[in-house]
Structure formats: C-alpha cells, structure tokens
Amino acid sequence: MTLPPPPLGGVDLVLHAAAWTDVDGAESEPQEAAAANVGGTQHAAELGAPLVAFSSDYVFDGAKRSPYVESDAPNPQSAYGRTKLHGEAAAGEQAWIVRSSWLFGWTGTNFVRTMLRLGAERDEVSVVDDQRGCPTYVGHLAAVVHELVELPYGVWHVAAGGDCTWADFAEAIFDQAGIDCRVRRISSAELGRPAPRPAYSVLRSERDGAPQLPHWRDGLRACLARLV
Fold this sequence. Notes:
Blueprint: E1 14-16, H1 23-28, H2 30-45, E2 51-56, H3 79-90, E3 95-100, E4 103-104, H4 111-121, E5 124-128, E6 132-133, E7 136-137, H5 138-143, H6 145-148, E8 154-157, E9 164-165, H7 166-177, E10 182-186, H8 188-191, H9 216-227
Parallel strand pairs: 1-2, 2-3, 3-8, 4-7, 5-10
Antiparallel strand pairs: 6-9
C-alpha cells in the first residue's frame, strides 16, 4: 500500500500508542479513561495523517472458546474495554486498528516485571488460572508495524503465537529467569478485581497477509534478555 501525500504540517504517519491502561481504575473513573482512550484517539486522527491505533483483546466478552478473529462481534464487559472499542471508532477510516493482547516489555509496568519483583520477594505468588490469552512482547509487535502499513486499512489482530493462562505465564517467567518461586493457581473470583476480564481472549487473524508474531515464549526470552 502506498501512503497518501502528507497532510498540512508534514505528518505522514501517526503511531498512536498512548492509552489509559489501568483496567480496574477505569471502572471507578470511566470518564477519565474515555478522555484518554477515545478523546486521545480522536485528537490523533485529527492530525489528518494515516493512523496506527493500538486496541485490545478486552473488546471481546470471552464467551467464545476458539480464537477471536476480526469479523467476530465485540462485546466488551468492562469500562476499559468499552473505551478501547469506542476508540477504534474514533480512529476513523484512514486507520489501521491493531488489536493485541497481554502486552509486556522490558520497561514500564507490566506482568513480567511485576512477577520478577514479586518472585524475588516471596516464596509463592497467587495467579489466576481461568483467563487464557496470548502474552505479546512489545518488541515483536513494534517490529511488524512496517508490514502492517503496507496492508489495507481496518481492524487487524496481531498477537503472539501460542496461548496460555496467566498462571502458566508466571511459571514460565520464573523458570526462564531462574527464580525459585511457586505459583498458586486461583480463580478470577478469588482475586476479586473490580473489572471483569475475558475468560478467553486468544486473537488470530483471518485476513490475508496479516503479520505473524513469534511464540510468546520467544517473546519472553527476548524480553528477559533486555532485563539482564
């Protein structure tokens, strides 16, 4: 795909990765979450350049038990999920909507860094085992954006290969990092978080030419190598 001429101001492509990511906080502050995830996306679209907007697996309700593809109807169950879905609409027609899931990397606040910290402090951590998805390494996701912008506008599912539960992921983190910490598998009800999460949110693409990411275990190895 050939990008159109740059709009006034010389911007020829916008990568919109800013977002409200506090899923539980969005339940108590839905307007603030919407201001970031919907209003922020609208502002990015108003620049008039082609837009890559990153969305979430939380736009789905998790009732399905086979991978979600682009043609599946969204049905978010949380305030966060609703703001991400409305943000997709705010991106406009000149946009690539990238739905990914369970993002982690070597900086910021994310599950891998949290588990490494807790594993160093405790002998055991409790992790939910009834939510299944695709932990996706941000380095792998970023690397395929150049492929994405050669494809037609619209919704694209781009997530790591393989799938697991959060408890499976925690065990893999401790194993690969050489941390002696047990994982106690619990239910989402036991954890008691304010926002509902999809029980199943594995993402796959049905679209021709969709970028393919490495397995989540490869992403974990790459991430841990950056943290050493």
